[in-house]
Amino acid sequence: MNELKQPDTAExxxxxxxxxxxxxxKQEEDIVTDSSSQEKAPEGTAEKNNITLRNRMYNAISSxxxxxCYIFTATLSKPVGWIIALGKFLWKHTVLFRDAMVRxxxxxxxxxxxxxxxxxxxxxxxxxxxxxxxxNRDRRAAARIKRAVIRDALFGKHGLLVTAFxxxxxxxxxxxxxxxxxxxxxxxxxxxxxxNGKMMxxxxxxxxxxxxxxxxNERIVYAGxxxxxxxxxxxxxxxxxxxxxxxxxxxxxxxxLEMSDSTIEYALGVYIDKKFYGAVTENxxxxxxxxxxxxxYRTDNKDxxxxxxxxxxYEPGLFLEESIIPQSDIIELLNSQKQQAxxxxxxxxxxxxxxxxxLDIPMSKxxxxxxxxxEEDYVMRAGKQLLLEQxxxxxxxxxxxxxxxxxxxPYDTEYVNDDEHYEGVLTTVQKGETGTNKVTARVYYxxxxxxxxxxxxxxxxxxxxxxxxxxGTLPPQSSHYSDDSVGVDKKYIWPVQGGSYWGGxxxxxxxxxxxxxxxxxxDIYAGATGxxxxxxxxxxxxxxxxxxxxxxxxxTLYGHCSEIFVYEGQEVVQGQxxxxxxxxxxxxxxxxxxEVRYGxxxxxxxxxxxxx
Length: 612
Prior knowledge:
CATH topology of the largest domain: Glucose Permease (Domain IIA)
Structural class: alpha+beta
CATH class of the largest domain: Mainly Beta
Shape: flat
């Protein structure tokens, strides 16, 4: 009887280690294997935490993957089910069709295989007869039977070669017919041209002759019509084209010129936008001059593209002797000027005299092309186009270049309430500052005049600073004067030094003030104390204008000034010089237009103004 052997300590440790490895990870974390690990408890704890974190991460990723797979499977299950259902439906409702297709393919298979089946049956019967003859040792009969079998199998009524020919003959006939049709339809035909009974060659269509006739007439007409006129009588016939080449319009023009009695020479025809300008024996000097013209427009810009707007070509051929001119005549033409109508778009603040100075065009010319500007009631509005006549180079040059420049960015204006000033009084608290942007643009010019600008990049150099203006909120004094109550005590002094009364309220339709004539540059005074609410140019017809808000809520206006000496928000006193007499805006003669307003109401200045 064998005694049970107790495992030694080493074996016991091995067994415990194997058991520990099979335990869950959480139990492994709770077991301390030796004394050294107990001494390093902090490090072991961190390592356990890392293992736990990794396990949780793996579990989360695994759960997420299962969820995605579930969604993917659930999403695909419906389309797959629909496809299966559709297949079942088609299979169920196409029984007759499937049976018909089976019968058709079966019959077709039997038809194709019939010769081979008959041949196989014949060979089987013949083989039995051959064996019988060989058994009777009748070699001649066996050989005769073999020859007959081979002959019938190949050349018999149902032999393989005969059957193959019967199948192949229709296919060969179709291929042959197709080749014949393809040959007929692919045959090229050309127009045979004869002029005055002389065969000239083959042309692609009748337009070639029309172009050749035009080219010939251009060459004759340019020479002043000195060439003997030739009546060209074309005749056409259609022929199949073999190895012949088509005659071009220029070749045909040369042959047509040869039919004239004039002296002709070989030269280069100069065409600008397909118009004939003469022929030259060589074009070296012309090409140099064209390059010189382009160089005069070129700059150091790397991305610059300079080219002529017109197409300049040279066509070699035969030309009348009278049509051949020196290169200097063509060069003179290239450097000439031509008159071309153009238009100017009116901008804000423009006037006829300002446009005349800006474009360096005599005023008489501007009025000649645009007679409406001389009318008394004419109003020049922004966006309107005025007709101009300009001299432009005979050859227009187009330029495209990349330009980098800085532009000003306007600032915003913010308004804040001010309870220390009357309503309508504006005070600048913080002056606005314009910003700066660096702009890169592709700019296009024709003859030095910009025609298009495309901005490709904008870089902010300096941001604008907003202007802050305080707006008075105190209500004005409640002293409102009516036309009936103001007759005795006048409110405003005479505003123009040495000025004369030209016309008052309603002197003509729409006149809502008083016109006070004066010498150009004469002083204009503030009618009463107040705050300047506007000082600048008005597009409504007043020109340079100043408005003053007075403490009682009234506003006075001074228009058509030549100069302005005050600024917006400035406080002025009665009698202070604020501007100078002029004729800006819609004005005829030097004068000051004076108005009195209360809110949006315009009042008759005669009741408020001290008239000397």
